[in-house]
Q: What sequence folds into this?
């Protein structure tokens, strides 16, 4: 029975791939290495080129160059620089608007990459690489964050910016690489490769995001007299939530974010007791303000009005960025961060206190999200892992319509969710979205 519990806990993940594409199978019996990771990405590149749908061209790098790049990055990830192991990112030079450009450096060895890694430790920065005359080069530092990339497509002021890079290689630790592409994504860690799934592809998460977006758009229409038919950017809420989670993941301290049903701040009635009660930051209000300035800029009648509205929009965007960062950092305090369904923080440092009686009286069962297989409670809790995971599972077992993101200290993210009949756990998942 433990095998069933482990399959629900550890292998209940999903793949987001083009419908007509069939990725190679992953042999879980063998030890995987960087060449295996390159082969998987290359397989999709070749399929994409043959399908005629490739927007990214050949990514300015050959199949052989890709293999070399991943192998160099893999070995560089295990080489300390002045006693420290760095986490850094790589993107292809197809991206534009670099933050810094310098004389090109030949990436002909792990050492050459390791020496550059210290300039790229922030999650929103990446070394810009390309291939020329059969060699790999780095010639700049790219801004791949929300300021540098048009993750807010259609924005009134910065609409000329490009979309996020179509291919990213993230070095997250010794021998720990994540390759994100417009097709499937993969993670190499501990000699094993797994498919990674963007959190926005998960049914319970997507349902919550749509609920929050609809709620905020209703507030926006009500507060500012904007027609409900006006289409607020549907990427705003997923992007904000991804930013919050990435901050917590990069901190490597562990944490949890509990999303309660409704718009109230009474967490105690759900069995969640905040040590530090608060009603801010209110990311929902920040998003509505962001939409207000965006809408105002789009409705400006003349150049001066447009310029002033654009400035206010930039300020509102910066405020939203800053507050998302703050919410992510709240998870570094022992206990969970509690939010409602308009992304208002209700407290942090919170303790989940669910009694055994509540668990025994609950009608909900633990189910595999894909197969519907049911796992007995005792076996599930024996297999679930540490205190954070057990607490999240107990909360979802006792309360309906709750969703919890659990961040482990080793940088993994899992989702627990509940409805009136079932509790699901999915992961590990990734914070990228199909657009980033």
A:
């Amino acid at each position: 029975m433990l095998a069933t519990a482990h399959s629900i806990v550890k292998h209940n993940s999903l793949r987001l791939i083009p419908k007509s594409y069939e990725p190679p199978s992953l042999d879980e019996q063998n030890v995987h290495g960087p060449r295996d990771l390159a082969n998987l990405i290359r397989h999709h590149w070749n399929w994409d080129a043959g399908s005629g749908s490739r927007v990214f061209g050949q990514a300015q790098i050959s199949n052989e160059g890709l293999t070399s790049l991943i192998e160099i990055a893999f070995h560089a990830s295990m080489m300390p620089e002045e006693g420290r192991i760095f986490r850094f990112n790589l993107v292809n030079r197809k991206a534009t608007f670099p933050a810094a450009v310098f004389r090109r450096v030949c990436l002909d060895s792990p050492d050459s990459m390791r020496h550059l890694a210290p300039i790229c430790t922030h999650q929103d920065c990446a070394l810009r690489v390309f291939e020329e005359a059969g060699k790999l080069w780095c010639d700049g530092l790219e801004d791949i964050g929300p300021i540098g990339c048009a993750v807010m497509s259609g924005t009134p002021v910065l609409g000329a910016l490009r979309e996020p890079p179509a291919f990213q290689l993230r070095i997250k630790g010794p021998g720990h690489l994540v390759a994100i592409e417009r097709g499937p994504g993969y993670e190499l860690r501990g000699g094993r490769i797994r498919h990674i799934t963007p959190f926005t592809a998960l049914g319970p998460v997507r349902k919550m995001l749509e609920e929050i977006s609809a709620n905020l758009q209703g507030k926006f229409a009500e507060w500012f007299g904007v027609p409900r038919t006006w289409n607020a950017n549907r990427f705003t809420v997923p992007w904000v939530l991804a930013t919050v989670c990435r901050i917590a993941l990069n901190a490597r301290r562990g944490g949890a974010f509990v999303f309660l049903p409704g718009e109230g701040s009474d967490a105690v009635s759900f069995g969640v007791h905040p040590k530090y009660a608060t009603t801010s930051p209110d990311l929902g209000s920040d998003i509505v303000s962001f939409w207000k300035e965006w809408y105002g800029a789009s409705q400006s009648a003349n150049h001066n009005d447009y310029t002033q509205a654009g400035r206010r929009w930039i300020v509102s965007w910066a405020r939203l960025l800053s507050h998302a960062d703050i919410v992510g950092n709240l998870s570094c305090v022992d206990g969970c961060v509690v939010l409602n369904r308009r992304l208002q923080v209700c407290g942090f440092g919170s303790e989940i206190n669910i009694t055994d009686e509540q668990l025994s009286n609950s009608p909900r069962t633990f189910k595999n999200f894909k197969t519907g297989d049911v796992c007995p409670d005792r076996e599930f809790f024996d297999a679930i892992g540490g205190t954070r995971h057990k607490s999240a599972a107990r909360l979802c077992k006792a309360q309906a319509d709750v969703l919890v993101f659990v961040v482990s200290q080793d940088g993994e993210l899992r989702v627990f969710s509940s409805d009136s009949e079932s509790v699901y756990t999915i992961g590990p998942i990734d914070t990228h979205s199909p657009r980033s």
Notes: The two ends are 39 Å apart (CA to CA). Residues 1-13, 52-58, 150-161 have pLDDT under 50 and may be disordered. The chain has two domains: 17-196, 199-429. The first strand starts at residue 88 and ends at 92.
